[in-house]
Each structure stands twice: as structure tokens, then as C-alpha cells.
Amino acid sequence: MIPFFLSIIKFACCLLFFGSSFVRAEVPPFYKMIAKEQSVPEALLYSIALQESGYSFYGKRKPWPWTLNICGKGIYLDSKKEAEEFLREAVQVGCSVDVGLFQIHWQTHHNNFSSFSQALDPIYNMRVGAHILFTQYQKSHDWFLATGHYHSPNNKARASNYRDSVYKILAKVIQ
């Protein structure tokens, strides 16, 4: 638990530099459940979902389960069925695809799913995202570093930019 507190200190430094424009967010129950199950900080898990698939509904930003990023273009679809069709088509033509609430990279992590449907199941996608985050934490024993590596494990600059964005969101989730 001490490494998480050190991450919060690092995060506070980032907040002083970057500021924040997000409205306070409450961690929903399913995120709390999965965070506990997967041994990751609940507010951090929810902040990653907001970063990855956040969409504004009536002035509030919420993670959206039918989000895909196909060949670098993010799209928010209306239903799981529609998202499955887009995902299937994108994979068939060889596009790079990130899937669901946690934007799980299909080409890297498809073995974690038995089907396109399972990849788009919000709870299952959340579990895989939490597992990826925890795996990165096990490598560094630092939630701050693990957050950047969740997105870009092999690119320090991209990992740093991503981490800063997530920690801006985290500031509002934990206040």
C-alpha cells in the first residue's frame, strides 16, 4: 500500500503542473468490485476507464463499453451488437483495434478473450484491464509507473503522457 501513497505524491506534483478540468467522479460499484478482486486501486482503475473510453453524457463524463479504436480512430457505438460487427470487420481486414471500456489492444491481448462478444462484455473487459494494470504493477511495484506502462509499456514518452492524463482524472475521482 505504501507504493500507492508514493504514487499519490507523484500525482500531486503532476496536478500542480497540469491542473484539472474534470468534474468530480464517484467510483461505480462494479469498478470497486473488480479492483478489489484484482488487487488494484479502485480510483485508479476507474480513472483509466475514463481516460480510455470516457464519453460525455449530459455534461458528465462516463466510460462507454461500446468504444473501439480502429486504426487510430476512436468510435463510440450505440450497442454491443454494433460494436461486435465493427470489431469483427476491423480484425478481418487487419486493422489495429482497441476494445471496450479499457481499450484492450486486440492484437496483443486477444488470447484473454474467447470471442469478440466477451471482449466487449463490460465486466470481463474491466477484469482484463485490471489484470493488465496489476501485471504492470508487479514489474515496477509502483502504481505511477504501472499506469503509464498500461498504455505504452515500451515507450517512455507515451507512457509519461498517458500517465499524466490519467492522474489528472484521478485528481477528481479521489477528491
UniProtKB/TrEMBL annotation:
Q: Which domain of life is it from?
A: Bacteria
| Record protein name field | Transglycosylase SLT domain-containing protein
Q: Where is the Transglycosylase SLT domain?
A: 33-156
InterPro entries recorded for this chain?
Lysozyme-like_dom_sf, Transglycosylase_SLT_dom_1
> SUPFAM superfamilies from the entry?
Lysozyme-like
Species of origin reads Aliikangiella maris
